[in-house]
Specification:
about 0% strand; about 100 residues; mainly alpha
Length: about 100
């Protein structure tokens, strides 16, 4: 039986939790993983990713406010696209970019 070190399990759990946050919140918390990464690593690219996911969230909320309840066709497709981008895009980004080992990528 192999014993796994607790810090390795903890790092994986944190990484999985951060990546699952946008999906669990249905895209409403999509900028949060990028914000956490930007605050931890202080890189310009992380801040740009945070800005991009914040813009996606703002576009999604604005589109949701402007779209009628009985939407069909292209407006509905745009809503679905923004929701998927805010959920899947933020989750994939958080999973791929989150550091896998201490002090590195």
């Amino acid at each position: 039986m192999k014993v796994v070190a607790i810090p390795a399990v903890r790092r994986f759990a944190v990484r999985a939790g951060i990546a699952a946050l946008p999906v669990v919140s249905l895209g409403l918390l999509c900028p949060v993983p990028s914000l956490v990464l930007a605050l931890r690593r202080r890189r310009a690219t992380d801040w740009w990713a945070f800005a991009a996911f914040s813009a996606v969230l703002a576009a999604w909320v604005a589109e949701l406010e402007l779209t009628p309840d009985t939407t069909h066709g292209p407006l509905f497709a745009l809503d679905v696209l923004l929701i998927l981008l805010s959920m899947a895009g933020a989750s994939i980004h958080a999973w791929k970019v989150w550091p896998r080992r201490p002090g590195g990528r």
